[in-house]
Amino acid sequence: MKQRIIRAVAGSMVLLSVSLGYWVNENWFFLTAFVGLNLLQSSLTRWCLLERILGKMGISDENGSCSSC
Which residue intervals define the domain Inner membrane protein YgaP-like transmembrane in the entry (predicted)? Predict the structure, then answer.
């Protein structure tokens, strides 16, 4: 469940920031870059702040165990 939430939040942030960058102000593209860099960092270090926050909220992984908490 946790991974689905993380992907949904990241995808929503990218779509929202691209939309805002296109229609409102081009500075919103920095948010897109930040989300992309955060995804790259988490793939290299295997550490994700949102995953830790969701774990503290009691949301577990698909298999029912919380391996990173």
Answer: 3-56
